């Protein structure tokens, strides 16, 4: 009896410690965002140092855009934190678990089918998250992004896309989760090793197939046509022994005018993906309302990107980068590969994953962790994963996230230096300015907000490093 009371006391301490830490993190994030909003509100004129980089009109647009985003983030974050707290206080997790048991019971499955009940729980939980998050996503897309000229979607396209994402996610999440739970169940004393190896294999497979089989379900990928740009990209890749096999242009303009570029693949099978909004000569957003513009070899669009599905908006000035600037951006990206940043990130990720599974194996037998969250009679493995990975590890996750942010900024400076050493300092300098303007990035940041959040160095710091190299 005394042991039960002691366990219950420990459970209460665990529960309220989790709540306290969650709100502490939220208040810390809110404080940082408040500091940054003060910067947005007070910096109404282009600083002298930026006089030759950003015009007054673009500076004001970026200021208002980032201020709107920050305000939206505050309210959506407050809602999310409140919702999570109410779910915990009102016993939402055990309620959903019992509901999952009722549903599978109607299908003829008893409580001994824990994995089946876990999948039903996961489906309901992700459905709840998708439904409650939908109004916020709609507001962000059709109010904030729309007002500032980025949204290219219609509501019909957005909703169809959301349903498709949910279905694809479930098709991946449910089988992977069922196999992981099965491995944990039958793995014996060393199940954490098998679980880690399984998640490692899944992550490598997903990285390999994502751009070839998953991403094309949502966006049109077209090989970059033969020409000067493709030839220069292939030559640059060859010069650093990057095993490039394909270069794609993805039709990002049907969703947003934001731009991006990335590479993927393992071993001798690397591919580069360029958003059409990154390419000055390929972006459909540069052609709308410009009848005098000479036609370029724009990749054919899929039927989903007709005017009934999305809407290219006329621009007063060209978006994207010219070919030398694109090569400089890719020089930066390839620098990440050449300098081993990708491999280092994978190694760090997998070391962290192994550590978490090991600690999970140590903690999963502690009944008080389950009773803290309303599970008095059973200890489902999926619930254990959720409690330990999401709640118990949250302090560790915050520290790790900050350390990775610091490391990421270091990697970005190194990749910039790599592009600089390739003789592309001038082109990368101008590309960074153009991309900042196109995406309405605000170049002035509070030092504490920047230190905690920015995985990329602030624009001015990157430009100073490149400018020094140019002068040298």
TrEMBL record:
Gene Ontology cellular-component annotations: endoplasmic reticulum membrane
Record GO terms (molecular function): metal ion binding; metalloendopeptidase activity
Domain Peptidase M48: 224-468
Keywords of this entry: Endoplasmic reticulum, Hydrolase, Membrane, Metal-binding, Metalloprotease, Protease, Transmembrane, Transmembrane helix, Zinc
UniProt-annotated catalytic positions: 333, 416
Reaction catalysis annotation: Hydrolyzes the peptide bond -P2-(S-farnesyl or geranylgeranyl)C-P1'-P2'-P3'-COOH where P1' and P2' are amino acids with aliphatic side chains and P3' is any C-terminal residue
Protein family (similarity comment): Belongs to the peptidase M48A family.
Record protein name field: CAAX prenyl protease
Source organism: Acipenser oxyrinchus oxyrinchus
């Amino acid at each position: 009896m005394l042991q039960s009371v002691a366990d219950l006391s420990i459970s209460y301490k665990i529960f309220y410690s989790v709540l306290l830490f969650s709100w502490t993190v939220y208040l810390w994030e809110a404080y940082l965002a408040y500091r940054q909003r003060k910067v947005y509100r007070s910096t109404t004129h282009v600083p002298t140092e930026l006089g030759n980089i950003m015009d007054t009109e673009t500076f004001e647009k970026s200021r208002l855009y980032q201020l709107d985003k920050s305000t939206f983030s505050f309210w959506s974050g407050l809602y999310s934190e409140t919702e999570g707290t109410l779910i915990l206080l009102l016993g939402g997790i055990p309620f959903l678990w019992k509901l999952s048991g009722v549903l599978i019971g109607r299908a003829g499955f008893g409580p001994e089918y824990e994995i089946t009940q876990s999948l039903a729980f996961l489906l309901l939980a992700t459905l709840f998250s998708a439904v409650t998050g939908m109004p916020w996503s709609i507001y962000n897309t059709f109010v904030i992004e729309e007002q500032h000229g980025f949204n290219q979607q219609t509501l019909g396209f957005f909703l169809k896309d959301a349903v498709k994402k949910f279905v694809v996610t479930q098709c991946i999440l449910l089988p992977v989760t069922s196999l992981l739970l099965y491995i944990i169940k039958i793995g014996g004393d060393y199940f954490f090793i098998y679980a880690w190896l399984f998640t490692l294999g899944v992550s490598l497979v997903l990285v390999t197939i994502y751009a070839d089989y998953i991403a094309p379900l949502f966006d049109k990928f077209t090989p970059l046509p033969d020409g000067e740009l493709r030839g220069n990209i292939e030559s640059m890749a060859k010069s650093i022994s990057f095993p490039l096999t394909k270069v794609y242009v993805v039709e990002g303009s049907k969703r947003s005018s934001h731009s991006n570029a990335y590479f993927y693949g393992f071993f001798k099978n690397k591919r580069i993906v360029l958003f059409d909004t990154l390419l000055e000569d390929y972006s459909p957003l540069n052609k709308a309302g410009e009848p005098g513009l000479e036609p370029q070899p724009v990749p054919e669009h899929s039927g989903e990107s007709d005017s009934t599905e999305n809407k290219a908006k006329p621009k007063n000035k060209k978006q994207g980068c010219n070919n030398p600037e694109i090569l400089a951006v890719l020089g930066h990206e390839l620098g990440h590969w050449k300098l081993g940043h990708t491999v280092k990130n994978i190694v760090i990720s997998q070391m962290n994953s192994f550590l978490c599974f090991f600690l999970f194996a140590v903690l999963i037998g502690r009944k008080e962790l389950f009773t803290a969250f309303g599970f008095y009679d059973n200890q489902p493995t999926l619930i254990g994963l959720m409690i330990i990975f999401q709640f118990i590890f949250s302090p560790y996750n915050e520290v790790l996230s900050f350390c990775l942010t610091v490391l990421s900024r270091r990697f970005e400076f190194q990749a910039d230096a790599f592009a600089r050493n390739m003789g592309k300092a001038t082109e990368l300098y101008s590309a960074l300015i153009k991309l900042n303007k196109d995406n309405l990035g605000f170049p002035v940041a509070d030092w504490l907000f920047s230190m905690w959040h920015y995985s990329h160095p602030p624009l001015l710091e990157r430009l100073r490093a490149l400018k020094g190299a140019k002068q040298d």
